[in-house]
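Run log // design_07
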């Protein structure tokens, strides 16, 4: 009860912070960057190891430049995520602009549902808000529950307040079968780390053997929907565009693991373009192929 009470107090504090204007939150972000990067060194060893293993062809100076840019952006992302708690639809529409929304109508007119792979790249939280009013059809966001139920519920309410439906990863297959006769647009993160028991497939991602979820491929074939990538690009501080990149239009004609390889390789190409916007402080490679043999 004490833990839940403190968590609820924390969510209330986040809401109050979210009421502050962007310009003030970016001043806070500049301070947070100094604290994270220079004072506490938050997960810097993890970030440095991930960058070193992902980009062995780059010099130490080049990787250090990416590292610093990453922490600078991470501080902004933290403040923008807090701001998203109370952002209005007008604010979201101004700051997260679709470049090709007509593609959604194009597939829906063909009677095809859409499965979008996304990465923890740029501001995925603001993208969740924008996704809520993208179409009148059913919009589904698949999430991975966190250990703190209060914060999970709090952020799910935030992400869904413009009309999206939140579904836990464990419920996804059942729900997608339930929605099979409706036109749906579903978004899943393609770069989550599976648990050891779910690590059934490894591929080369950023120069390393990487365990990946097969959920996008499995669900796509069950529902027989097109696969796109939900690409987000930073235009300037606090302003983004997002683009739906067609990846697979006929999933029933693909080979095993082909869909998985396609969306993973696209995310890798995006990260290589501008690596500072991906979540480098995440322990993405904690599961090794040999771990599954134990």
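design_07 sequence
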């Amino acid at each position: 009860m004490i833990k839940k009470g403190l968590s609820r107090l924390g969510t209330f504090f986040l809401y109050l912070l979210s009421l502050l204007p962007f310009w003030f939150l970016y001043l806070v972000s500049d301070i947070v960057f100094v604290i994270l990067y220079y004072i506490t060194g938050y997960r810097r060893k993890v970030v440095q190891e991930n960058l070193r293993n992902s980009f062995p062809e780059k010099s130490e100076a080049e990787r250090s430049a990416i590292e610093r840019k990453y922490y600078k952006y991470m501080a902004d992302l933290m403040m923008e995520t807090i701001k998203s708690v109370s952002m209005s639809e007008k604010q979201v529409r101004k700051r997260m602009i679709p470049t090709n929304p007509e593609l959604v109508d194009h597939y829906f007119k063909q009677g095809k549902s859409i499965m979008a792979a996304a990465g923890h790249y740029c501001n995925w939280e603001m993208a969740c808000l924008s996704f809520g009013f993208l179409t009148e059809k059913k919009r589904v966001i698949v999430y991975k529950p966190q250990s703190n139920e209060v914060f999970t519920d709090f952020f799910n309410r935030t992400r869904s307040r413009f009309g999206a439906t939140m579904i836990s990863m464990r419920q996804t297959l059942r729900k997608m079968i339930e929605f099979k006769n409706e036109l749906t647009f579903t978004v899943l993160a393609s770069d989550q780390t599976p648990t050891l028991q779910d690590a059934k497939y490894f591929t080369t991602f950023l120069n390393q053997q990487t365990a990946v979820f097969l959920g996008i491929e499995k669900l796509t074939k069950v529902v027989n929907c097109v696969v796109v990538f939900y690409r987000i690009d930073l235009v300037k501080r606090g302003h983004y565009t997002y683009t739906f990149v067609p990846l697979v239009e006929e999933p029933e004609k693909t080979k095993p693991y082909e869909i998985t390889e396609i969306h993973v390789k696209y995310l890798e190409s995006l990260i290589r373009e501008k690596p500072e916007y991906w979540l480098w402080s995440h322990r993405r490679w904690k599961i090794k192929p040999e771990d599954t043999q134990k």
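The longest helix spans residues 60-83.
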